[in-house]
Model the fold of this input.
Amino acid sequence: MKNTFKKVKIQKYINNRQFRNFSSTSLVQTSLKKRLEELIPEKSAQIIKIRKEHEDKVLGTCTVGQAYGGMRSVKSMIYETSLLDPEEGIRFRGLTIPDCQKQLPSAPNGGEPLPEALLYLLITGEVPTYKQAKEISDDLAERAKGLPKHVVTTLNQLPKEIHPMSQFIIGITAAQSDSKFSEAYRHGVDKKQLWKFTYEDSMNLIARLPQIASIIYRNIYKDGKVPSYDPSLDWGANYARMLGYNNNTFDDLVRLYLVIHSDHEGGNVSAHATKLVGSALSDPYLSFAAGMGGLAGPLHGLANQEVLRWTLEFLDQMGGDPSKVTDEMLVENCWKTLKSGRVIPGFGHAVLRKTDPRYTAQREFALKHLPDDPLFKFVGQIYKIVPGILTEHGKTKNPWPNVDAHSGVLLKYFGLVEYDYYTVMFGVSRALGVLSSLVWDRALGAPIERPKSVTTEWVNVNNFFLLFFFENLFVFILFSFFF
Ligand code: FAM
Done:
């Protein structure tokens, strides 16, 4: 009797959830989604052909050094939305940052590309018209309304001591209750259809991230009140408004920031973590939260907060006035950092071997809008000094600045001085790239990732065998010739 009761209750629960799921899944047909639907069969056919013709061709090999050295430059994954060249920097679907600035539509009152336009480019590989980008702005505004109330309540209850990035991950994970992907999976959806739910979750998440991010900012540093999402504005300007700004130049800075931090091919920690977790068919919320855990590392995204912290701490010791800092003082401080076993934040890169074009884009923005700012001039002085010191130090393969060396000074100029928050902005932007890529992973049926690991003992034994074999190859050949 008791069991039957339980069964009825469970069935009722399942029925309710089923009803909730399919009545709330809005499959909005924007031109972005329509175009994506057309592109998927083309791309799938291309991949089937490539795999058929080249399945056994070697893409790259891995040495013992690479296995121990963080898998640097091992070509072993497919990531469609962007590609990084060590000399030239990032290309989003073939377009450099200056190409994007020229070709992507901007807001009527702005000069920088609309992040929505970049999203269209990342997903389809095509440059959208202003009308198509505007359609995405409208779609995101509509989706932003659906942020579950419990996400706001959860964030409002968090102690201010919890780092903004940890709060961001909590917010994203709390929003997961609305995942269309996990609901669809639970109800047995055909795996060929999973991309549609990945798309829905990704667009919903992108739409709601500025709210989550702004609640965190306003709770920790301001009065806790967040302006409502304004459907007449684009996604980037809305983020700026919700942070508490009403300034066209700052709107444009936010748009530029959201564009340039969006994607950096697939092997960086945040992109790879998102892809890896997604490959287990964890939904986009959980996959993206995993990626954000990686972005919060000081060798990755957290470097932007570290740059400003390092700079301001040094200036503080020198009396606070950047114009009074001589090159000699700066050189001495850099050596002090290096000799204490720390890195100089904002310099170096695992792939890049030249100045990061994302650094250059921000420098150009500063030259246009804040050429006389003393801290901007100081960042220029650091740029002049640090590469020489890192070269002399002789360890880093790339002594040039990366994206994080410049972002803090721009945000600080406009009054966003709370550097512990900066990585959250980076995260809002990174969603555009890694979630676009996740949609394609599910559309193309990317399998669960499972590389092979070996133990040091295994390397020892196998290397010894190979060494012995190659060293004695000549003897083996002679031996087989005579007998
Ligand atoms: N200051 C001091 N030492 C540095 C250095 C720097 N800026 N960059 C690299 N090195 C050291 C590095 O720690 C390593 O030392 P060990 O041999 O003692 O381990 C050595 O130089 C060789 O490193 P590498 O091969 O040139 O670089 P990796 O690929 O190992 O690491 C980074 C790449 C980015 C983690 C590294 O350059 C770094 O720690 N930079 C400072 C932190 C930073 O700015 N990170 C942000 C990267 C960014 F673009 C992003 O992800 N947002």
About this structure: The domain at 66-300+432-443 is CATH 1.10.580.10 (Citrate Synthase; domain 1). The first strand starts at residue 82 and ends at 85.
